[in-house]
Amino acid sequence: MGRRPSGRPVRPTTVGAVGEHTTLVVGGEDGIGAAIAARLAARGDRVRTLPTDVDVTDATAVAAVLRDGAPVDVVVLARIEPAAFVARSAVELDESAWDEACERTIRASFVLLQQAHAVVRDEGRFVVVLPTVAATGVAGLVPLCAAVESVRVMAKAVARRWGARGVTVNTIEVDLETFVRGDGSSEDAEGIAVPSVPVLGQPSLPERDAVGDVIGLIDLLAEPASGGLTGALLVVDRGTVLQP
Amino acid sequence: MSGLDGLMAGRVVLVTGAAAGVGRGVSAAFGAAGAIVGLGVRRPEAAADAAADVERAGGTAVVLQCDVTDAAQSAAAIDRLVADHGRLDAVVHNAVSGRSNEATDFEHTDLAEWEDHCSVTIRATWRLAVQAHPHLRASAGAYLLMSSPAGIEGSERAPFYSAVKAAQRGFVRALAREWGPDGIRVNSVAPLAMSPALENMKRMEPERVARIEGLVPLGRVGDPETDIGPPSVFLCSDEARYVTGQTLVVSGGRFTGL
Questions:
Q1: Count of domains observed in chain A
Q2: Residues B161, B171, B179, B234: which is the catalytic one?
Q3: Domain B12-193+228-250 fold
């Protein structure tokens, strides 16, 4: 084990090579989560997903599923309640609709991060995938914007907490359509309505395989050499938002 | 308080969590600006000093029972201000969970603790918006959220507090776009300010507060009334008529990279 100039030992990197990981993809039943899970499995990665009937706001139920399986090297959290993608004025929502469109996503993210942390290996990687909407705010999607920013900063907070284990937590943001439809290959993708978000502007780069770009970043973040990168936001939107 | 004189004269403002700390200081600043200040508090009997501050500063204080986790109470507080004073020009949502100063053991806690934070900061942020919307539209008013630097940087000690404050920032950006056509501005302030908890720490562990102050380029933790109050009043006043969707970090330079 090497040593820093301070004399403290340098932690060796242990995350294995790309393709040898066990990756837990949460949100793998539709949208970008499904696309990521499918492509990782297709190339031979070991992929775990949650059964669709698990209540993701029930810590006991999630724990029971996650602890009954192999330890995890990489966790991909790409899950937002479908109700959040329905464009409506915030003042037209009732309490139940607000909960479904905003708070339930945050509750579930807490439970999933907490329980996944219990099964992730030391030096493991968390990658939270979100849509870019909260960077600028979108009329009609107030609950979604609130939930996304909440989950993004929750990820930063746990990045600070879990660093002692060598666990990194980073966020990748993609355009809303990519998040909702994934790569459009699923049977349901065509039928999903995606709200228009003109305030985000036009992309600078030509059309690309957004899901492939996200997987490329997940692979990059899983590399041992990325062990010093945590709490970061990586935006894969072909240069659309270009945050200050 | 010069500079605030008359800035909100005759205007009606509701401040939640107004009994102490930032809420009390901001209320006093609105008083100095000439506002009629509805002090929304859970226990009216605890708001006497805050009300006296508003009156001393030159404003009119109205103490209102307003536990923001109770939809009926917040609706009644708004209705009473409008009924008695004819208008509502600004809502400042400052109330936070009573557990905000506690460390959160993220890996072992449960949803009950989350609910304490969420109900006050996220749900009430939305609910107050719904309840105030027709009145703020009528006055071309302002909705101001008291967020936190923790909601931008993510606090290791307070992941729930960070998450709910971050939600407010996303809320502000989106609602500002939604309410722009109504003429309502939506902003937030992320303050670093003395609180009752920090005042207590200063008495018990002055070295800890000294360490915090050492991280602030301006060398001190902000005063709720004189440091946080004026920017808050500004954002609710006509002087900020072209400012919306923003988070103003008021931290003495402590947080320059957010």
A1: 1
A2: B161
A3: Rossmann fold (3.40.50)
Looking at chain B, the whole-number percentage of residues with pLDDT higher than 70 is 98
Position A49 scores a pLDDT of 95
pLDDT per residue as tens digits for the range A33-68: 999 999 999 999 999 999 999 999 999 999 999 988
Question: B93 CA to chain A: closest CA distance, Å?
Answer: 16
pTM, two decimal places: 0.94
In a domain, A211, yes or no: yes
pLDDT digits (tens, 9 = 90+) for A158-216: 999 999 999 999 999 999 999 999 988 766 666 667 887 776 678 999 999 999 999 99
**A97 contact partners, CB below 8 Å, separation of at least 6:** A83, A88
B175 with B243: CB under 8 angstroms? no
Residue B161 falls in the annotated catalytic set: yes
Domain ranges of chain B: 12-193+228-250
Chain B, 94 to 133: residues with Cβ < 8 Å from chain A are: 106-107, 110-111, 114, 118, 122-123, 125-127, 129-130, 133
CATH number of the domain within which A130 lies = 3.40.50.720
